[in-house]
Write a structure and sequence with these properties.
Layout (H helix, E strand, L loop, with lengths): L10 H17 L5 H47 L1 H8 L2 H6 E12 L3 E12 L7 H31 L7 E12 L3 E12 L1 E12 L4 E2 L12 H19 L25 E3 L5 E5 L12 E4 L2 H4 L5
Parallel strand pairs: 2-3
Antiparallel strand pairs: 1-2, 3-4, 4-5, 5-6, 7-8, 8-9
Length: 310
């Protein structure tokens, strides 16, 4: 069955009504022990469906904005001559790269849902020829292969899970273009997988358009610069400031379980450079905070790294 968000807009209300009806029946105490056991099982299943519906609502909020960004990025140049002309004046979008949907995988039953939109980065035919374009072609091919591998693995795992008739599972893959400047392009791959509870994580793919290569964190800084300490200390300051301002915000900074506490990023920590040119560090669910905090990002102020960057 093709997945349609609109088909499930009343799910929460229906589940709540069903739970209320079951509760009223249960309170009458006019059932046999076997019937009561059966009803309790149905009520437990209804609660699981309600939680699953809440998870889906959360997924939709997370990915809908990303979907809108990608749709505008891909579709608008093809539907409006004036928009296309305007975008051609932007070197990154008009001349170097574009994002299209490589594969659209959708599936839904009462217990299983998959909505996987696999993006692909393409090098524009208008890009300059030469060494930079050769590297850009190679870089985008490697990134596309990695994205497709991640997506195929999730699809294979999802399809394997269909064999368990009593199980529940959700999987969502979408993407968002974070940066389109003259110097950098960043594509963010958003992933969510749920089976009762859910887990969200992201991949960031940043391309240096001046070299055609995928950017590494160390590439941004001067040789020998201690950017690891500078970034890590600023993240700790931001974590503490957020916790001081909002009691619902919590990071593992002063936890009793010492090994949970955030101490430092590494060169492998996810990052990208935003439209302002600032470094943004990204963490997946559970990396530096409880799962309810979701995926989190920290933009490092320019002045913190001013003396360290190239």
């Amino acid at each position: 069955m093709i997945y349609n968000f609109g088909d499930r807009k009343d799910l929460n209300e229906k589940v709540e009504k069903e739970l209320l009806r079951m509760k009223e029946v249960y309170q009458k105490q006019e059932m046999s022990a076997a019937e009561l056991a059966k009803l309790k099982k149905k009520m437990k299943e209804a609660r699981r469906m309600e939680q699953r519906a809440r998870n889906k609502k959360r997924i939709i909020r997370t990915v809908s904005a990303a979907a809108a960004v990608v749709a505008a990025f891909v579709i608008l140049p093809n539907t409006s001559a004036s928009i296309a002309l305007a975008m051609e004046q932007i070197p990154v979008i008009g001349n170097l790269v574009e994002v299209v949907t490589f594969r659209d995988y959708s599936y839904e039953t009462d217990r299983n849902m998959a909505d996987i939109q696999v993006p692909e980065i393409q090098v524009s035919d208008q890009a300059d020829t030469g060494e930079v374009q050769d590297k850009l072609n190679k870089t985008t091919e490697e990134i596309n292969a990695e994205i497709q591998r991640i997506s195929e693995d999730l699809i294979a795992e999802f399809e394997a899970g269909l064999e368990y008739e009593e199980g529940y599972q959700d999987v969502v893959v979408n993407s968002e273009v974070l940066t389109t400047t003259q110097d950098y392009f960043t594509l963010k791959l958003l992933c969510y997988q749920g089976a009762g509870s859910g887990y969200a994580w992201n991949y960031y793919y940043t391309i240096d358009l001046n070299t055609g290569e995928r950017l590494k964190l160390k590439d941004i800084f001067k040789e020998g610069a201690d950017y690891i300490t500078a970034i890590s200390e600023n993240i700790k300051e931001q974590m503490q400031a957020q916790m001081d301002a909002d009691d619902s915000v919590y990071y593992w900074l002063h936890d009793e379980i010492e090994e949970w506490n955030f101490k430092s990023i590494t060169d492998e920590t996810s990052f990208y450079i935003n439209e302002k040119g600032n470094v943004v560090i990204g963490f997946n669910e559970g990396d530096v905070a409880p799962m309810y905090m979701g995926t989190v990002e920290f933009e490092i102020p320019a002045e913190v790294l001013a003396d360290l960057r190239k």
